[in-house]
């Protein structure tokens, strides 16, 4: 299906392609199951037979940011969605793997603290007790 002036005009074979936009062309002139939304070969969104999609310039959040490597979209409350670093709280990287909750410092590959689902706490290094929190 092609919607738009000259959309898909370079297709030679293939079936089940969806092309939307003026003069928008499929990523391949011979493949099937492609999707393209844009104009010419400038795509806002394109996809292929395995249903993978690629955005032309990224996903913009409610703050008009494209995020970056290691970022995920998360709730920004009533404002919508915003890019956030996956599992980062301050300088801590926190990851739950099904049985443990691991804590690492950002940029450090070593687990510094682990809390298991049985309640065991493992700490790399020393534990200091405070009468009151600093």
Identify the strand order in the major beta sheet.
Answer: 1-2-3-4-5
Shape summary = elongated
Please give the share of residues in helix: under 10%
Q: Specify Rg, calculated over alpha carbons.
A: 24 Å
Number of distinct beta strands: 12
Secondary-structure element order, as H and E? EEEEEEEEEEEE
Number of domains: 3
User: Which percent band covers the strand fraction?
Assistant: 35-45%
Report the total helices: 0
Q: Can you summarize the main beta sheet?
A: 5 strands, mixed
N→C terminal distance = 65 Å
Average pLDDT level: 79
What structural class do you assign from the helix and strand content?
A: mainly beta
Q: Low-confidence spans: pLDDT under 50, at least 5 residues?
A: none
Descriptive labels:
five-stranded antiparallel β-sheet; five-stranded mixed β-sheet; 3 domains; elongated; 134 residues; mainly beta
Task: List the topology elements.
Blueprint: E1 2-3, E2 18-20, E3 35-39, E4 42-47, E5 53-55, E6 71-75, E7 81-85, E8 88-89, E9 92-96, E10 100-105, E11 113-116, E12 121-123
Parallel strand pairs: 1-2, 2-3
Antiparallel strand pairs: 3-4, 4-5, 6-7, 8-9, 9-10, 10-11, 11-12
Could you explain the architecture of this structure?
With 134 residues, this protein is an all-beta fold. The N and C termini lie far apart (65 Å). It folds into three domains: 2-55, no CATH class; 60-85, no CATH class; 90-123, no CATH class. The chain has strands at 2-3, 18-20, 35-39, 42-47, 53-55, 71-75, 81-85, 88-89, 92-96, 100-105, 113-116, 121-123. The chain is elongated, with a radius of gyration of 24 Å.
